[in-house]
Protein backbone atom coordinates (compact mmCIF):
# COMPACT_ATOMS: atom_id res chain seq x y z
CA UNK A 1 0.00 0.00 0.00
CA UNK A 2 1.46 3.38 -1.02
CA UNK A 3 1.81 6.16 1.58
CA UNK A 4 -0.81 8.91 1.38
CA UNK A 5 0.81 12.34 1.05
CA UNK A 6 -2.41 13.98 0.02
CA UNK A 7 -6.08 13.72 0.92
CA UNK A 8 -8.48 15.20 -1.63
CA UNK A 9 -10.89 17.75 -0.12
CA UNK A 10 -14.65 17.15 -0.25
CA UNK A 11 -16.11 20.06 -2.18
CA UNK A 12 -19.73 21.26 -2.42
CA UNK A 13 -20.87 22.05 -5.99
CA UNK A 14 -22.37 25.37 -4.78
CA UNK A 15 -18.83 26.68 -4.32
CA UNK A 16 -18.08 26.15 -8.01
CA UNK A 17 -21.26 26.45 -10.09
CA UNK A 18 -23.81 29.31 -10.17
CA UNK A 19 -26.93 28.73 -8.03
CA UNK A 20 -29.39 29.08 -10.91
CA UNK A 21 -27.84 27.04 -13.74
CA UNK A 22 -30.75 24.56 -13.65
CA UNK A 23 -33.56 27.08 -13.04
CA UNK A 24 -36.75 25.85 -14.77
CA UNK A 25 -35.32 22.37 -15.38
CA UNK A 26 -36.92 19.08 -14.32
CA UNK A 27 -34.98 15.99 -13.22
CA UNK A 28 -36.34 12.41 -13.29
CA UNK A 29 -34.14 10.18 -11.15
CA UNK A 30 -34.49 6.43 -10.57
CA UNK A 31 -32.93 5.26 -7.33
CA UNK A 32 -33.25 8.81 -6.01
CA UNK A 33 -34.69 7.78 -2.64
CA UNK A 34 -31.30 7.09 -1.09
CA UNK A 35 -27.53 7.08 -1.44
CA UNK A 36 -25.68 8.32 -4.50
CA UNK A 37 -28.73 9.26 -6.58
CA UNK A 38 -30.34 11.14 -3.70
CA UNK A 39 -27.09 13.13 -3.34
CA UNK A 40 -27.03 13.89 -7.06
CA UNK A 41 -30.68 14.98 -6.93
CA UNK A 42 -30.03 17.31 -4.01
CA UNK A 43 -27.11 19.00 -5.78
CA UNK A 44 -29.10 19.46 -9.01
CA UNK A 45 -32.04 20.90 -7.05
CA UNK A 46 -29.69 23.27 -5.20
CA UNK A 47 -28.90 24.71 -8.63
CA UNK A 48 -32.56 25.41 -9.39
CA UNK A 49 -34.21 22.22 -10.75
CA UNK A 50 -37.38 20.50 -9.56
CA UNK A 51 -37.22 16.72 -9.32
CA UNK A 52 -39.10 13.44 -9.33
CA UNK A 53 -37.46 10.59 -7.46
CA UNK A 54 -38.42 7.04 -8.44
CA UNK A 55 -38.08 3.86 -6.41
CA UNK A 56 -39.80 0.83 -4.98
CA UNK A 57 -40.18 1.85 -1.33
CA UNK A 58 -43.01 4.37 -0.99
CA UNK A 59 -42.28 5.40 2.61
CA UNK A 60 -38.59 6.07 2.00
CA UNK A 61 -39.33 7.94 -1.24
CA UNK A 62 -41.91 10.20 0.45
CA UNK A 63 -39.53 11.01 3.31
CA UNK A 64 -36.64 11.72 0.92
CA UNK A 65 -38.78 13.91 -1.34
CA UNK A 66 -39.90 15.98 1.65
CA UNK A 67 -36.33 16.28 2.92
CA UNK A 68 -34.98 17.30 -0.51
CA UNK A 69 -37.72 19.93 -0.98
CA UNK A 70 -37.07 21.40 2.48
CA UNK A 71 -33.29 21.45 2.05
CA UNK A 72 -33.26 23.05 -1.40
CA UNK A 73 -36.40 25.21 -1.58
CA UNK A 74 -37.35 23.49 -4.84
CA UNK A 75 -40.07 20.86 -5.38
CA UNK A 76 -39.33 17.14 -5.23
CA UNK A 77 -42.13 14.59 -5.60
CA UNK A 78 -41.97 10.81 -5.15
CA UNK A 79 -43.13 8.35 -7.81
CA UNK A 80 -43.27 4.73 -6.79
CA UNK A 81 -42.15 2.37 -9.56
CA UNK A 82 -40.01 -0.70 -10.14
CA UNK A 83 -37.62 -0.11 -13.05
CA UNK A 84 -38.18 -3.77 -14.05
CA UNK A 85 -41.82 -2.92 -14.78
CA UNK A 86 -42.26 -0.67 -17.85
CA UNK A 87 -45.89 0.08 -16.97
CA UNK A 88 -45.03 1.46 -13.52
CA UNK A 89 -42.26 3.58 -15.08
CA UNK A 90 -44.67 4.96 -17.68
CA UNK A 91 -47.00 5.93 -14.83
CA UNK A 92 -44.10 7.70 -13.06
CA UNK A 93 -43.31 9.61 -16.25
CA UNK A 94 -46.97 10.54 -16.63
CA UNK A 95 -47.01 11.83 -13.04
CA UNK A 96 -43.94 13.94 -13.84
CA UNK A 97 -45.53 15.45 -16.94
CA UNK A 98 -48.80 16.18 -15.12
CA UNK A 99 -46.91 17.94 -12.31
CA UNK A 100 -44.09 19.71 -14.19
CA UNK A 101 -44.97 19.49 -17.91
CA UNK A 102 -41.59 18.21 -19.08
CA UNK A 103 -38.40 16.28 -18.38
CA UNK A 104 -34.97 17.80 -19.04
CA UNK A 105 -32.61 15.48 -17.19
CA UNK A 106 -32.74 11.76 -16.40
CA UNK A 107 -30.54 9.83 -14.00
CA UNK A 108 -30.74 6.05 -14.47
CA UNK A 109 -29.50 5.00 -11.07
CA UNK A 110 -31.63 2.18 -9.65
CA UNK A 111 -29.38 -0.79 -8.94
CA UNK A 112 -29.13 -4.03 -7.02
CA UNK A 113 -26.09 -5.77 -5.58
CA UNK A 114 -24.92 -8.62 -3.42
CA UNK A 115 -21.70 -10.62 -3.22
CA UNK A 116 -21.87 -14.14 -4.64
CA UNK A 117 -19.46 -16.44 -6.54
CA UNK A 118 -20.56 -17.59 -10.00
CA UNK A 119 -20.58 -21.17 -8.70
CA UNK A 120 -23.11 -20.20 -6.03
CA UNK A 121 -25.20 -17.75 -8.02
CA UNK A 122 -28.61 -18.98 -9.13
CA UNK A 123 -29.91 -18.19 -12.59
CA UNK A 124 -32.61 -16.08 -10.99
CA UNK A 125 -30.08 -14.16 -8.87
CA UNK A 126 -28.01 -13.30 -11.97
CA UNK A 127 -31.16 -12.35 -13.90
CA UNK A 128 -32.45 -10.18 -11.05
CA UNK A 129 -29.43 -7.86 -11.10
CA UNK A 130 -29.38 -7.71 -14.91
CA UNK A 131 -33.08 -6.85 -14.82
CA UNK A 132 -32.70 -4.07 -12.25
CA UNK A 133 -29.50 -2.48 -13.61
CA UNK A 134 -29.46 -3.11 -17.35
CA UNK A 135 -33.06 -3.71 -18.35
CA UNK A 136 -34.08 -1.04 -15.81
CA UNK A 137 -31.81 1.48 -17.53
CA UNK A 138 -33.30 0.57 -20.92
CA UNK A 139 -36.86 0.80 -19.53
CA UNK A 140 -36.15 4.21 -18.01
CA UNK A 141 -34.70 5.55 -21.25
CA UNK A 142 -37.58 4.11 -23.28
CA UNK A 143 -40.18 5.73 -21.01
CA UNK A 144 -38.53 9.17 -20.97
CA UNK A 145 -36.97 9.63 -24.41
CA UNK A 146 -39.89 11.42 -26.14
CA UNK A 147 -39.84 14.08 -23.41
CA UNK A 148 -36.05 14.39 -23.29
CA UNK A 149 -35.97 14.87 -27.07
CA UNK A 150 -38.51 17.68 -26.76
CA UNK A 151 -36.36 19.50 -24.19
CA UNK A 152 -33.02 18.61 -25.86
CA UNK A 153 -32.03 17.25 -22.49
CA UNK A 154 -29.47 14.82 -21.14
CA UNK A 155 -29.02 11.44 -19.46
CA UNK A 156 -26.62 10.23 -16.81
CA UNK A 157 -26.39 6.49 -16.19
CA UNK A 158 -24.78 5.39 -12.94
CA UNK A 159 -22.43 2.48 -13.54
CA UNK A 160 -19.36 1.15 -11.70
CA UNK A 161 -15.66 0.38 -12.23
CA UNK A 162 -15.97 -3.31 -11.30
CA UNK A 163 -16.09 -4.57 -14.87
CA UNK A 164 -12.83 -2.93 -16.02
CA UNK A 165 -11.10 -6.02 -14.65
CA UNK A 166 -12.20 -9.21 -12.96
CA UNK A 167 -13.87 -8.45 -9.66
CA UNK A 168 -14.60 -11.58 -7.63
CA UNK A 169 -18.18 -12.30 -6.50
CA UNK A 170 -19.46 -9.53 -8.77
CA UNK A 171 -19.97 -11.30 -12.12
CA UNK A 172 -23.68 -10.40 -12.16
CA UNK A 173 -23.11 -6.71 -11.30
CA UNK A 174 -20.07 -6.43 -13.59
CA UNK A 175 -22.04 -7.85 -16.54
CA UNK A 176 -24.99 -5.59 -15.73
CA UNK A 177 -22.88 -2.43 -15.50
CA UNK A 178 -20.95 -3.22 -18.70
CA UNK A 179 -24.37 -3.32 -20.33
CA UNK A 180 -25.29 0.04 -18.82
CA UNK A 181 -22.12 1.61 -20.29
CA UNK A 182 -22.98 0.12 -23.69
CA UNK A 183 -26.57 1.40 -23.62
CA UNK A 184 -25.42 4.93 -22.77
CA UNK A 185 -22.89 4.93 -25.60
CA UNK A 186 -25.48 3.72 -28.12
CA UNK A 187 -27.96 6.30 -26.84
CA UNK A 188 -25.39 9.07 -27.26
CA UNK A 189 -24.83 8.17 -30.90
CA UNK A 190 -28.53 7.71 -31.73
CA UNK A 191 -29.88 10.74 -29.91
CA UNK A 192 -27.08 13.26 -30.50
CA UNK A 193 -28.77 14.46 -33.71
CA UNK A 194 -31.89 15.22 -31.61
CA UNK A 195 -29.79 17.36 -29.26
CA UNK A 196 -29.78 14.76 -26.49
CA UNK A 197 -26.57 13.82 -24.62
CA UNK A 198 -25.83 10.70 -22.58
CA UNK A 199 -22.91 10.04 -20.25
CA UNK A 200 -22.02 7.56 -17.52
CA UNK A 201 -20.71 8.27 -14.04
CA UNK A 202 -18.74 5.32 -12.64
CA UNK A 203 -18.40 5.67 -8.85
CA UNK A 204 -15.56 4.13 -6.91
CA UNK A 205 -16.16 2.65 -3.44
CA UNK A 206 -18.50 5.25 -2.01
CA UNK A 207 -18.74 5.96 1.72
CA UNK A 208 -22.07 5.47 3.44
CA UNK A 209 -23.83 3.65 0.60
CA UNK A 210 -25.59 0.30 0.35
CA UNK A 211 -23.01 -0.73 -2.28
CA UNK A 212 -20.16 -0.09 0.18
CA UNK A 213 -21.97 -2.00 2.90
CA UNK A 214 -22.42 -4.99 0.59
CA UNK A 215 -18.89 -4.91 -0.82
CA UNK A 216 -17.15 -4.48 2.54
CA UNK A 217 -19.13 -7.20 4.28
CA UNK A 218 -21.06 -4.82 6.54
CA UNK A 219 -17.92 -3.03 7.74
CA UNK A 220 -19.49 0.34 6.84
CA UNK A 221 -16.70 2.61 5.61
CA UNK A 222 -13.68 0.35 5.62
CA UNK A 223 -12.12 -1.99 3.09
CA UNK A 224 -9.00 -3.97 3.91
CA UNK A 225 -5.91 -2.76 2.04
CA UNK A 226 -7.76 0.02 0.25
CA UNK A 227 -5.83 3.01 -1.02
CA UNK A 228 -5.85 5.16 -4.12
CA UNK A 229 -3.85 8.07 -5.55
CA UNK A 230 -6.11 10.74 -4.00
CA UNK A 231 -6.09 9.10 -0.60
CA UNK A 232 -9.71 8.43 0.34
CA UNK A 233 -12.95 6.70 -0.62
CA UNK A 234 -15.37 8.32 -3.04
CA UNK A 235 -17.84 10.57 -1.19
CA UNK A 236 -21.36 11.29 -2.42
CA UNK A 237 -20.57 15.01 -3.06
CA UNK A 238 -17.82 13.93 -5.50
CA UNK A 239 -20.46 12.14 -7.57
CA UNK A 240 -22.99 14.95 -7.19
CA UNK A 241 -20.44 17.45 -8.51
CA UNK A 242 -19.81 15.25 -11.55
CA UNK A 243 -23.57 15.07 -12.22
CA UNK A 244 -23.94 18.85 -11.95
CA UNK A 245 -21.09 19.31 -14.41
CA UNK A 246 -22.38 16.75 -16.93
CA UNK A 247 -25.89 18.26 -16.96
CA UNK A 248 -24.55 21.83 -17.06
CA UNK A 249 -24.07 23.87 -20.25
CA UNK A 250 -20.31 23.55 -19.60
CA UNK A 251 -20.64 19.93 -20.77
CA UNK A 252 -22.74 20.71 -23.87
CA UNK A 253 -20.15 19.08 -26.19
CA UNK A 254 -19.56 16.02 -24.02
CA UNK A 255 -21.52 12.86 -24.83
CA UNK A 256 -20.89 9.12 -24.92
CA UNK A 257 -18.33 9.35 -22.12
CA UNK A 258 -17.79 7.16 -19.09
CA UNK A 259 -16.42 9.22 -16.21
CA UNK A 260 -14.90 7.25 -13.34
CA UNK A 261 -15.12 9.26 -10.11
CA UNK A 262 -12.88 7.13 -7.92
CA UNK A 263 -9.82 9.15 -6.95
CA UNK A 264 -7.80 7.48 -9.70
CA UNK A 265 -8.32 4.17 -7.94
CA UNK A 266 -10.04 1.19 -9.45
CA UNK A 267 -10.14 2.40 -13.04
CA UNK A 268 -6.39 2.99 -13.28
CA UNK A 269 -5.10 -0.19 -11.72
CA UNK A 270 -5.92 -3.00 -9.35
CA UNK A 271 -3.47 -2.39 -6.51
CA UNK A 272 -1.93 0.92 -5.54
C1 LIG B 1 -26.90 -15.00 -3.55
C2 LIG B 1 -28.89 -13.86 -3.67
C3 LIG B 1 -28.48 -12.95 -2.67
C4 LIG B 1 -27.18 -13.15 -2.09
C5 LIG B 1 -30.47 -12.40 -3.31
N1 LIG B 1 -30.12 -13.47 -4.03
N2 LIG B 1 -29.49 -12.04 -2.47
N3 LIG B 1 -28.11 -14.86 -4.10
N4 LIG B 1 -26.43 -14.17 -2.57
N5 LIG B 1 -26.71 -12.35 -1.12
C6 LIG B 1 -30.95 -14.17 -5.00
C7 LIG B 1 -32.21 -14.73 -4.38
O1 LIG B 1 -31.95 -15.95 -3.69
C8 LIG B 1 -33.07 -14.94 -5.61
O2 LIG B 1 -32.69 -16.07 -6.35
C9 LIG B 1 -32.70 -13.75 -6.48
O3 LIG B 1 -31.41 -13.30 -6.03
C10 LIG B 1 -33.68 -12.61 -6.36
O4 LIG B 1 -33.76 -12.25 -5.00
P1 LIG B 1 -35.00 -11.42 -4.41
O5 LIG B 1 -34.70 -11.12 -2.99
O6 LIG B 1 -36.27 -12.15 -4.72
O7 LIG B 1 -34.99 -10.13 -5.33
P2 LIG B 1 -35.53 -8.69 -5.02
O8 LIG B 1 -36.47 -8.69 -3.86
O9 LIG B 1 -35.99 -8.14 -6.29
O10 LIG B 1 -34.24 -7.91 -4.51
C11 LIG B 1 -33.22 -7.56 -5.40
C12 LIG B 1 -31.85 -7.60 -4.70
C13 LIG B 1 -31.89 -6.77 -3.41
C14 LIG B 1 -30.82 -7.07 -5.69
C15 LIG B 1 -31.55 -9.05 -4.36
O11 LIG B 1 -30.64 -6.86 -2.75
C16 LIG B 1 -32.23 -5.33 -3.66
O12 LIG B 1 -33.38 -5.00 -3.89
N6 LIG B 1 -31.25 -4.44 -3.62
C17 LIG B 1 -31.53 -3.02 -3.89
C18 LIG B 1 -30.61 -2.20 -3.11
C19 LIG B 1 -29.16 -2.45 -3.45
O13 LIG B 1 -28.69 -3.61 -3.55
N7 LIG B 1 -28.42 -1.37 -3.63
C20 LIG B 1 -26.99 -1.50 -3.85
C21 LIG B 1 -26.66 -1.09 -5.17
S1 LIG B 1 -24.95 -0.81 -5.19
P3 LIG B 1 -33.46 -17.52 -6.20
O14 LIG B 1 -32.71 -18.43 -7.13
O15 LIG B 1 -33.33 -17.91 -4.76
O16 LIG B 1 -34.88 -17.24 -6.63
C22 LIG B 1 -24.40 -0.99 -6.70
C23 LIG B 1 -23.02 -0.46 -6.89
C24 LIG B 1 -22.10 -1.51 -7.39
O17 LIG B 1 -25.05 -1.45 -7.54
C25 LIG B 1 -20.67 -0.99 -7.37
C26 LIG B 1 -20.03 -1.00 -6.01
C27 LIG B 1 -18.62 -0.50 -6.04
UniProtKB/TrEMBL annotation:
GO terms for cellular component: peroxisome. Its EC number is 1.3.1.124. Pfam families: adh_short_C2. InterPro entries: DECR2-like (IPR045017), NAD(P)-bd_dom_sf (IPR036291), SDR_fam (IPR002347). GO terms for biological process: fatty acid catabolic process. CDD domains: TER_DECR_SDR_a. Gene3D superfamilies: NAD(P)-binding Rossmann-like Domain. It comes from the Eukaryota. Keywords: NADP, Oxidoreductase. GO terms for molecular function: 2,4-dienoyl-CoA reductase (NADPH) activity. It catalyses: a (2E,4E)-dienoyl-CoA + NADPH + H(+) = a 4,5-saturated-(3E)-enoyl-CoA + NADP(+); a (2E,4Z)-dienoyl-CoA + NADPH + H(+) = a 4,5-saturated-(3E)-enoyl-CoA + NADP(+). PANTHER family: PEROXISOMAL 2,4-DIENOYL-COA REDUCTASE (PTHR43296), PEROXISOMAL 2,4-DIENOYL-COA REDUCTASE [(3E)-ENOYL-COA-PRODUCING] (PTHR43296:SF2). This is 2,4-dienoyl-CoA reductase [(3E)-enoyl-CoA-producing]. It comes from Collybiopsis confluens.
Amino acid sequence: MAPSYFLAPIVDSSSTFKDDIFKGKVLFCTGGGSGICKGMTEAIMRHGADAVIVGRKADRLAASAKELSEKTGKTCIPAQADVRDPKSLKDAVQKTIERFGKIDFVICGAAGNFMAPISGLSENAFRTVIEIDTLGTYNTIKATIPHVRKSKGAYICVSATLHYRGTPYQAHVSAAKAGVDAISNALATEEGPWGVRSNVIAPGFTSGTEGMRVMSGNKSNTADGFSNPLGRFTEIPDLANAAVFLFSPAACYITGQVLPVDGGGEHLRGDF
